[in-house]
Amino acid sequence: MNLTDSAPAMNNLLGSETDSQRTLYPYVTGTSVVGIKYKDGILLAADMGGSYGSTLRYKTVERMKPVGKHSIIGASGEISDFQEIMRFLDEQILYDNMWDDGNSLGPKEVHNYLTRVMYNRRNKFNPLWNSLVLGGIKNGQKYLGTVSMIGVQYQDDHVATGFGNHLARPILRDEWNENLTFEEGVKLLEKCMRVLLYRDRSAVNKLQIAKITDEGVTISQPYSLKTSWDFSAFKNPTLGAEGSW
């Protein structure tokens, strides 16, 4: 058999590789998610912006979703990949419910599952382009963790993704305490989101705050923060930079 005769067979062998698709770049993305523990449970905050490249294209993107009875997830990064993650989680919750054994997946189990999924996809060079925050409460035990797109995970009393890691967590380190009331927790998250709005070009002034306690998950209606743009640094942002070259 000559090379010409073997070409179709070779194409069939390579077809599965050449036809496969990879997300090489994120297209529509969301920015920071901030999460904290408070006295009665977990609070998460995220704005509703969806950026198409550097353009703030969408302003009604919900990036926090309940997971089963005990958990809530928030996502930065590619919106379509977050939808795929939610499909995975819905399948896991459905499979768990089918056992009908009176038990249900808690936040720790969901967080561990997400860590394995993200790391597995990274090893296949086909990552899900998201950073995730997973919080919840089960049997009175509060849980809050995060996992990156390459499977790096940790747990803490407060977590953040994206610019929130640099701009919100210093505020949380100074002002967070384990006895925060719901009102104090919301006020602290709003302070973080206001700083992110001022400094993160991908942020929009339309956010939601999610709460999870032993009673269940509640996600607020979208609302805007009161802002002030009359700071001298905002009026003349190039002041101090002149003559630096």
Give a verbal description of the structure.
- The longest helix is centred in the middle third of the chain and has 20 residues, at 79-98.
- The protein has helices at 3-18, 79-98, 107-123, 164-167, 169-175, 182-199, 232-235; strands spanning 28-30, 33-38, 41-47, 50-52, 55-58, 64-67, 71-78, 130-138, 141-147, 153-155, 158-160, 207-213, 216-219.
- The chain is of the alpha+beta class.
- The model is unreliable at 6-11 (pLDDT under 50).
- A hairpin with a 2-residue loop joins strand 2 (33-38) and strand 3 (41-47).
- The protein is globular, with a radius of gyration of 22 Å.
| Low-pLDDT residue spans | 6-11
**Largest sheet geometry:** 8 strands, antiparallel
Average pLDDT for all residues: 90
Query: How does the helix and strand content classify structurally?
Result: alpha+beta
Beta-strand content estimate = 25-35%
Helix count from the secondary structure assignment: 7
Beta strands, count: 13
Tell me the Rg in angstroms: 22 Å
Shape: globular
| String of helices and strands | HEEEEEEEHHEEEEHHHEEH
Helix content: 25-40%
In whole angstroms, how far apart are the ends?
69 Å
